């Protein structure tokens, strides 16, 4: 029963995180220009490499909330049929910029805390080149004037950092497995 409550709580937190990232993804997508709902869904999927896959049922409530808060505005336009096209407002641009900056601060603090917690399990070598990682993400997300070459370089840097992080995580998982085996061996010795 306790596990069930914990699972429910975790699922609720995951849903809240997804909703928050969806709103952020909408703002980012609209930085590139006005779009209607289906185009926004398509671009979010592309921009997040399918990590976020919004549905109409999740997108439109988020659009409405962003519009009510003055971060985006919608206009009805006549194409083949009448559609609502959304665009980001100046207030939305500023909110996006501040949210991203705050996100980097929080992510950095969490990373430092996590590495401190993992240190007793396995010494983790992560140099402080993570500002390079953060700069790559900032160029991709925030620098509207970045050239295509600068964006390509930022993506290459990001890819390299993620590959390095993947190697580190692999080492940590291996160390955890060794520690588990060691503790299990201790239990067997104590049981004899």
Name the features.
single chain; 192 residues; mainly alpha; Arc Repressor Mutant, subunit A; 2 domains; three-stranded antiparallel sheet; 6 helices; elongated
Topology (elements, then pairings):
Elements: H1 2-31, E1 35-36, H2 37-47, H3 56-68, E2 72-78, E3 82-88, H4 90-118, H5 130-141, H6 148-191
Helix pairs in contact: 1-2, 1-3, 1-4, 5-6
Give an overview of the whole structure.
It is a single chain. The protein has 192 residues and is mainly α. It folds into two domains: 2-89, Arc Repressor Mutant, subunit A, CATH 1.10.10; 119-191. It contains six helices and three strands. It has helices at 2-31, 37-47, 56-68, 90-118, 130-141, 148-191; strands at 35-36, 72-78, 82-88. The chain has a three-stranded antiparallel β-sheet. Helix 1 (2-31) crosses helix 3 (56-68) and helix 1 crosses helix 4. The relative contact order is 0.07.
| Approximate shape | elongated
CATH topology annotation of the largest domain:
Arc Repressor Mutant, subunit A
Alpha-beta content class: mainly alpha
**Strand and helix order:** HEHHEEHHH
Per CATH, the class of the largest domain reads Mainly Alpha
Distance between the first and last residues' Cα: 34 Å
Q: Output the CATH homologous superfamily of the largest domain.
A: Winged helix-like DNA-binding domain superfamily/Winged helix DNA-binding domain
* Main sheet properties: 3 strands, antiparallel
Residues in helix, %? over 70%
By CATH, the architecture of the largest domain is named Orthogonal Bundle
Q: What is the overall pLDDT average?
A: 81
Q: Beta-strand level of the residues, as a percent range?
A: 5-15%
Query: Please, how many domains?
Result: 2
Going across the biggest sheet, name each strand in turn: 1-3-2
Q: Point out poorly predicted stretches.
A: none
Cα radius of gyration in angstroms: 22 Å
Number of helices: 6
Q: What's the total count of β strands?
A: 3
